[in-house]
Structure formats: structure tokens, C-alpha cells
Amino acid sequence: MGKKGGGRLLQAAKAAKQGGGPPTKKQKKSHGSGPGPAQHHHQKQKQQQSTTGKPSRSASASSSATGTSAAAPPPPSSSKKQQHKQKQHSEPTIPFSPSENILLVGDGDLSFAASLVEHHNCTNLTATVYEKDLDELSAKYPHVGANIDKITAIPTCKVLYNIDARRMAPFAHKSKDKNSGRVEQVGAMDRIIFNFPHVGGKSTDVNRQVRYNQELLVDFFKRALLSLAPGGSIIVTLFEGEPYTLWNIKDLARHSDLAVERSFKFQARAYPGYHHARTLGVVKNKKGEAAEKAWKGEERPARSYVFVRKDDVPKPPAPGMGKKRKAEESDDESDEDGDDWGSGGEDFEEEEEELDDGAEADGADEN
Q1: I need a surface site. Which of 9, 33, 138, 139 has the fewest CB within 10 A?
Q2: Is the pTM of this model over 0.90?
Q3: Where is the 25S rRNA (uridine-N(3))-methyltransferase BMT5-like domain (predicted)?
């Protein structure tokens, strides 16, 4: 090795002892009084961001390339939305107000009507039953007397017997049209409610049962329209699952000049004292005694459908309504695309089999 090479090694060793090394070519290029290429590029990005308010594409590309990223805003918290949705599902929907004229059709043992009077303070209630008189009604439901007393304790509330949902006379009053001067009948009922309609019977022919119940609903819709006040609604409640889904109640209503306003989950707990009643009366065992372990319809999932006249303007939510929601909303997101019914039908069949072993089940549903 020559003297020239040895001198360079000695200088490098001295520089290492002093804590520095020989500057590299890249370091020499980056040193200077003016900004280098990297600094100039960074300043250009800041200028673009200050003028447009948005980072440039080159900025996002360079940050991802260098392993750094701009601080992204935290994702919006969905906890409030979830809590609101859970609250909607947990709070029962009450589709009437206490002051409205309410007609109950086929009200069975009148426990639903009694609850409306006693716990919802309804003062203009007409409850109807299919049975021809009190004796026939009491034979089916021995406990009905207590419910009748609660209803008739209010002077403007009453119970009517021998009312057939398919042939009932209009609940209406005469009104004179301002433009034509003609006197017409106008429906008097703001809410017409038919809970768990069913023709009754023990037929095992599903197709026949479906057809009979569809005919019942179509005839009911025609008669109910004559009693429906302007802006009023017809509310029908059915169990979820087959065979009730086969009835296609929404299509039946559309063909009866009604529009589906919305639907919601029926929650029996919103009506203290209410108990589901069979069309043929109290469920009894083979000895003729009331079955202690009878199937309780009020515990089974059910859905209420709200119908209004086509092109009619629904009444706004009145004070005292359970949920003040938009008319087109539903608490079941799948309701518009198709009913999400679950497995209610299978549960029903299993429970019917249990009743057949020790009780006289009629297979019919009524409020």
C-alpha cells in the first residue's frame, strides 16, 4: 500500500474516533442553503392542500409509500343508532289514541276491549262479538262478565252481539256534501281493529282453510270500508308463520281498494289483562274441564297490518299514540321486500299436537 492510500485510511480512522464519518455523496447533495427536491415536493403538497382544502393524489401516494398516513377521522359511533333501534323494537306500538272512535270486530272474550278501556283510557269504544247474545258468549267464555262490566262502566263504550264481520251494517252517519249538496253516508270509525281473524273449524286441509280465511278477509274489508272515517285505518293482526303467510293479506287488501300503510310487531304485553281467546271457546280437556296447560296465543309472535283507503290522507298521529313514526316506516326492515316470518308455523304444529293429546283444540283463532 502506498503512502497516499495509507493517509486516507488514517484520516478515516481519526474521523471515526471523533464521532463522525466521511460524508457520502447523497449527504453532500442534500446539504445546501436552498430546499432540496424532497423539501420542494413537500412544500408543493402543502400549497395544493391549502388552496383546494383536500390533499393531492401525489400527497396520499407519497405518504403511503413512506409508511406514513394522514390522520383519518374516527368512524362514526353506531351505538346511538343501535340503542334507538333496540328501543323501537322494545317499545310496543299503539295504533290508536284514547279519544278516537274505535271499532273492535270479533273480540272473543272481550279482554282486549277491557284492556283498552281500563289501561288505555279509551272512551269511544264499540266492541262486537259474533255470538248472538250474552248467554252464548258466556257459555264459551265463563269469565267474560268481568270484562263486560269494565267496558260498559264507561257510558260511551258498548258491547254489540250477533255482529258478523262479513255482513256487518255500516257504522256511519249522514253528511251533506258542500259542493254537490248530496247527502251521503260517512264512516264514523277512526280505527277498525280485527285481531286474529279465523273462520274456525278443525279441518286439516290447508288449502281449504286458506281459501276460507281469504274469503273472510275480503268480505271484512268491503264492510269495514263503509264504516271507516276519512283518514282512518283498518288494523288486522295475524300470527307469524304458516298457514297465515299463505293468506297473502297485503294482496287481499290491495284488491279491496286499500293501501298498506305499515306493519309492526304486535306485543300483547302492551294490553294488560288481554288473553288470546279461541273461536270455539275455552280450551278443554277430554273431561270437559278447562285445560291448565292450554296453549297461550298471546305469547306467540304476531304482526299487525295497518291499511288505509287508496289515495286517502291518513290522520296524523294523535296525542297518546304509542310511537310517532312516519307512515311508510316499518319496524321490520324486511317487510317491504317480503315478510320475514321465522319458524312460527313449526312451533304451532308441535303445540297443537300436545293439545290434541289432552285437550280439545279447535285450531281457530280469535282475539
Answers
A1: 33
A2: no
A3: 103-278
